[in-house]
Amino acid sequence: MKSSEQKSEPDVLVANAGSVFTFCPLSARAKEWISQNVETESWQWLGAILVVDHGYALGLAEGMLSDGLILR
Question: Is the Cβ–Cβ distance between 41 and 7 less than 8 Å?
């Protein structure tokens, strides 16, 4: 494996579900980032998956990316 490919595992899986986007944090770093940076209500969580209105999804993804999280 090349060194540039070593950190290719995603921290968060993002999916477009129509009027909402889902953010599934996979790494401890992603879970901590959400805990520290996102105000959520219990109803926004489906198990371990954060559900976000499409109007907020881009800003959330950009914030995650700017802090070095890998999204897929």
Answer: no
